[in-house]
Amino acid sequence: MRRYFLNIWEAISTIAKGMGVTLVHFTPARKSITIQYPDRTPVPVVETLPERSRGMLTFDPDVCDACSMCAMTCPIDCISIDRERVEGAKGFVLKRFDIDMAKCMYCGLCTEACPVKPKGLEHTREFEGATDRMEDLILEFIDEKKHRELVEKALKKAEKLKAAQNEE
Amino acid sequence: MRYFADWIIENLEFTRAIPSEYVYLIIMVVGGLLLLLFVVPMAGALTFVERRVAGKMQSRIGPNRVGPQGIFQFVADGVKLILKEDIIPTAADRRLFKLAPYIVFVGSFLTFAALPFSQKLIAADLNIGILYIFAVSSMVVVGIIMSGWASNNNLSLLGGMRSAAQIISYEVPQILSVLAVILLTGTLGMQGTIKAQGWAPQHWFLFHNPFAFIAFFVFFISAVAECNRIPFDIPEAESELVSGYNTEYSGFRFGLFFLAEFANVYVISAVAVTLFLGGWNTPFYLPTGIWGLLPSAVNLAGLITFLIKTFVLVFVCMWLRWTLPRLRVDQLMTVGWKYMVPIAFFNLVGTAVWMLVWGDKSIAALLGG
Amino acid sequence: MPEFRTEEMVLNMGPQHPSTHGVMRFVVHTDGEVMRVAKPDVGYLHRSIEKIAEKLKYPQFMPFTDRIDYLAAMNCNMGYAMTVEKLAGIEVPPRAEYIRVIASELNRIASHLISVGVMGLELGAVTPFLHAIRERETINDLMEELCGARLTYNYIRIGGVAQDLPAGFAEKTIEFLDHFVPAVDEYNRLLSYNKIFVKRMADVAVISAENAVDYGLVGPNLRASGVKWDLRRDEPYSVYPQFEFDIPVGTGEKGQVGDCYDRYMLRIREMVESSRIIKQCLAAVPDGPVQTKLPASLKVPEGEAYVRTESVRGELGYYVISDGSDKPYRLRIRTGSFSAMSIVELTSRGLMIADLVALIGSLDVVAPEIDR
User: Fold this and answer.
1) Which has fewest Cβ within 10 Å: A77, B161, B286, C342?
2) Is the ipTM of this complex over 0.95?
3) Which chains border C (3 or more CB–CB pairs < 8 Å)?
4) Do B222 and B132 reside in the same domain of the chain?
């Protein structure tokens, strides 16, 4: 019998407390935390993300030395590299550098593996990388023109090195 | 309604050419259409308000893109539902499947005929008003069982059965608790009950005597159970039955179920305001006849007061929905039969004893003078 | 009198269902509202992670461990790293050990927030779930500052962690924890002590201590049945012995020991204990490097190792057999959710369908962890 009235009292008091918590949310003490992306934000969302965010990948062909470490480290083999030796220059020159972002899982292992400083392969904070077609997701960083530029740069570097050695 | 018909016959001369019965008939049809025009947008707007209120309680914004502050969201939802493909499962019972939403909506809508809005603004001031409302709103059960059975889906059937058990069980305490008020007024009519109360809170039936106070809560809880709202929404429990008796419905049929639910919420709030919270009583009178548009007996202040009180109770309904988890079926039955019904009986006896001792004087009347 | 013929109904809960935690199927034999038995049917999320491991080098496999249990990704990372370190004899610098503990415990809080919120959501209380998610957003932001991702962290490396703590991380974490512990009180007032919630969860699906041990339950499910077993205390690893924290055990406060309410309350208490651990850890982090230098191609000597850690859902065990090369010969992962599925059939006898939902929610299974 006592249990009966205790049940009623417990029900009323706990439900009232719960409803009190919900009511507090109508006061300014609890503001809504929604970010109204993409158009009603004070700054673009991309700029509010931390520096280390692992967004889309970006590649700088000018610092890359075509060591292929990134392609070997990627667990999913989404980086395809073609490289060739140029007559008269040391090392490799990139002929093709493709990253298939459709396969990429944004794990960051490739960026850690890049040995040059500053890094050739880096994550940006950009997250809006969706495209309309699957083919557009394959980022190709080296085309004919760039390849020729890189070959010329490598040859020039080799000449400078030879000139410095001849001087000694 | 008869008051309006008389006023029109009096002021618009061309109507006198037709016999007055036909004028009444036309006024009735127009009145019904006006009510439909009130109910459907209001139920739609209530869906929008519910989503904004839910968002506020959950530290987020609700829909706010469609139209200024998002108020046209329900229009967008309605248009979307109408444009959707109407899917009827192959093995479903076609006639019952199509009929069920209409029965549910009609059961909800018919109650609006007896709901008061202001002194003269009531479609039909029946002298059995409350009885009519409760009787007609039970039609919803038939519709729900029909939809559960006709969907040819095990889970929908379960939902329909649960709902039938729930609604039938909670009818008993609902009506028993209302009896406490009916004893005080001696009339079943809606306008009569409101006239027996005053505009000040101490003159409402809520504070009339302690038994009426308890009766309000019993009535409100039972009425929330009648509407299939959380904490009693087992029939459409989303996480268990994937929407119960609603599951196989798409497009506008689904929209009808939704509209019926929100119309029901409005109805129970309006009935609670009528019976317990003083209805449209106001300290002053704002006639609308001054603009010559409506007969001067329509009290605009009363209309606004009634609507405000009703929407406050609708808000409480929503507040309950977004705070509480739902009860299990057997717990629901326990609450209905073992708690609500005895309390309602106790109320009835208590009110009878009160009337024996003090007549129908309220506590305020006893203390004040 | 006509003879009534009743037969039991066979329902299918899943694989697509709003309240199984992922893609699982339960074949429910029910007689009206009361169930005869509910048999789980798993395997819909099998992704052959263990087979993939045989084709990848040891460091390359780390992102895959995130996806075993994505809600407790740090713990999964850590278990794998510890197994390979044990097999290859790699030392981890002390600063990295402390950072690993901080990350794992933060992840524990985040995962328990989801678990606790979802338990309310399945019973119909939508608002507490969103409040839990609101708290979890801060943890996600902290993790994004730490390692760059919000869910699949890939932060712990074999031999340490990937990057050092960023500037201001300790202050932000302490600020969050100071805000979080009172928020748990508010959450309790909203949901945990609510009479309806208690009636739904207390005395429902009681798992006794003997059954829990016999069926191989681990983690919070085991502790809620009264068995005080926590790998952080009983087989200590990493730097856990240096911290002072309690192991909450189910006490049957609103019903019997081992009911759904115990499993729920235990997770709330574990969140509070985790915040204690994080505060002590942040105060005691030593300076130093965060990763041991490894050879470019890590070759692990022949042998096998089994290391188990206390992940969010219980004992997470990694068993690695190496044949001396740079890829594992066999990698086997033993997860807590898989063991939890074994008790569903026994406990579901005589429950109502609504209670089955409460049971699965309180066991806190994550389907990817069952199927891998």
Assistant:
1) A77
2) no
3) A, B
4) yes
